[in-house]
Design a protein that fits this description.
CATH architecture of the largest domain: 3-Layer(aba) Sandwich
Keywords: Glycosyltransferase, Transferase
GO molecular function: quercetin 3-O-glucosyltransferase activity; quercetin 7-O-glucosyltransferase activity
Distance between the termini: 19 Å
Radius of gyration: 22 Å
EC number: 2.4.1.-
Number of domains: 2
Number of helices: 20
Largest sheet: 7 strands, parallel
CATH topology of the largest domain: Rossmann fold
Oligomer: single chain
InterPro entries: UDP_glucos_trans, UDP_glycos_trans_CS
Structural class: alpha/beta
Family: Belongs to the UDP-glycosyltransferase family.
């Protein structure tokens, strides 16, 4: 009976790096027989790659979209305008959608069962208010890594202890009071908003309010492997009644649905992939290519772009570099020697299906901004990384990759072409064996977690059982 089927509404923060993992989770829940309504903004839903194919393969997956109140040509970057739109436009539309879904479910010919719960992106804090108002159970999914979330949960204590804001500009000072981080944290490992001069700075307060809001959820869902983050998860467990670690989510989905996932590889993508990049990779030697991508949010100055470009060309290794159309501020001209070097052994592309590229036998390393999605994808693919952190959880991820797990190298914020060249040669040359040994160990741990008997596989089953125990009518 439809009434006995669980119905979950999933609402991601409206950026690609948040949409893709939550869509993976939606597919996993549908594969288990749950009904899922996935909510996007109109703007993002129009850009979503082939949602019809997903709905065809997962008959209980349905898409809804709501207005974000922004003009069509708005860039929709992670900034104040998007955050304001969440409160002023998206919040009331999402509230009305929840009420509409509930009313439809009560009719005799309802296409969907009654609503069981909401799974919201942790950044969509207004969803907690609506869930409490409408008396709907709510679970929180967090895109950033667990260590970042735990660090942000500790921010009020760091302020009370006088460690924040920083009294000076020495970034090497050790931070105490964040337990479970497998070694000391330093100021340079904390997110950029910790470098503000006042404790009441809006950016710092936003991070505090966002993380404290998570404690209102009935359960916390994290895209991580329990064994990788057990040290900090044991501390977080004292705050949260239920924590489900399901990472790497894309690998868990692949393990559940097998070869079908290859035909749906672009799911969650808002950017069109270059179809010719795989042909170029096919022409390269095994493990010879350094793949470069800074995700969907990071921007470069012209000076930074030139340093990276010279470092890549001068390294002597083949490279594939994702350069989004909006990645650089202002116009730029490319020196002739870079054009020649790129033509000889480089491939510049607007966007790619990253999972597919990282899995290609020609790719031997990943120069990354250290976003959590990219880091997990690199771990699953068994590739060492060069980390260039920029914002949010990138700094803690880069520290963990390079110092704790020892599966990559960390590039200083002030990127220098000689340093970039040296790091590429280290990562791709004869000395890579030591790093690769650590990568293989971490990669196996991640891949083992998503198969039957693994921690993420077991946690998914427990999450599904928990959702099925929630029966709700507004």
């Amino acid at each position: 009976m439809a009434g006995k089927q669980s119905h979950v509404v999933i609402f991601p923060f409206p950026l690609q790096g948040h949409i893709k993992p939550l869509l993976c989770l939606a597919e996993l829940l549908c594969h288990a027989g749950l009904h899922v309504t996935f909510v996007n903004t109109h703007h993002n839903h129009k850009r979503l790659a082939n949602p019809q194919a997903l709905s065809t393969h997962f008959p209980t997956l349905h898409f809804e979209s709501i207005s974000d109140g922004l003009p069509d040509d708005h860039p929709r970057a992670l900034n104040g305008e998007l955050l304001i739109a969440l409160k002023t436009s998206i919040r009331p539309h999402f509230r009305e959608l929840l009420k509409t879904i509930s009313l439809k479910a009560e009719s005799n010919d309802a296409p969907a069962p009654p609503l069981s719960c909401i799974i919201t992106d942790g950044l969509v804090t207004f969803a907690f208010d609506l869930a409490e108002e409408l008396e709907i159970p709510i679970l929180s999914y967090n895109v950033p890594c667990a260590r970042y979330l735990w660090t942000c949960l500790c921010l009020p204590d760091l302020i009370e202890q006088g460690q924040l804001p920083f009294p000076d500009d020495d970034m090497s000072v050790e931070i105490t009071g964040v337990s479970g981080m497998d070694g000391p944290l330093h100021r340079q490992d904390l997110p950029g908003f910790c470098r503000v001069k006042q404790a009441d700075h809006p950016a710092l307060q936003f991070a505090i309010n966002w993380t404290q809001a998570q404690r209102r959820a009935s359960a916390l869902i994290l895209d991580t492997v329990y064994e990788l983050d057990a040290s900090c998860l044991s501390h977080m467990a004292l705050m949260f009644p239920k924590i489900y670690t399901l990472g790497p989510l894309h690998a868990l989905l692949n393990a559940q649905i097998g070869n079908v996932s290859k035909s749906l590889a672009s799911h969650g993508g808002l950017w069109k992939s270059d179809p010719n990049c795989m042909t170029w990779l096919d022409s390269q030697l095994s493990r010879s290519v350094i793949y470069v991508s800074f995700g969907t949010l990071v921007n470069l100055t012209r000076a930074q772009m030139m340093e990276f470009w010279y470092g890549l060309v001068n390294s002597g290794h083949p490279f594939m570099w994702v350069i989004r159309s909006d990645i650089i501020y202002g116009a730029h001209q490319i020196p002739a020697e870079l054009e020649i070097g790129t033509k000889e052994r480089g491939y510049i592309v607007d966007w790619v299906s990253q999972e597919e590229v990282l899995a290609h036998k020609a790719v031997g390393g990943f120069l990354t901004h250290s976003g959590w999605n990219s880091t997990l994808e690199s771990i699953v693919a068994g590739l060492p990384m060069i980390c260039w952190p920029n914002l949010g959880d990138h700094y803690i991820i880069s520290r963990t990759v390079s110092q704790k797990w020892k599966i990559g190298l960390q590039l200083n914020e002030n990127c220098d072409r000689c340093n970039i060249e040296t790091m590429i040669q280290t990562l791709m040359g004869p000395k890579r064996e030591e790093i690769q040994s650590s990568v293989d160990t971490i990669s196996k741990l991640a891949r083992d977690s998503v198969v039957k008997g693994g921690s993420s596989h077991n946690n998914l089953e427990q999450l599904i059982e928990y959702i099925r125990s929630l029966q709700h009518h507004i």
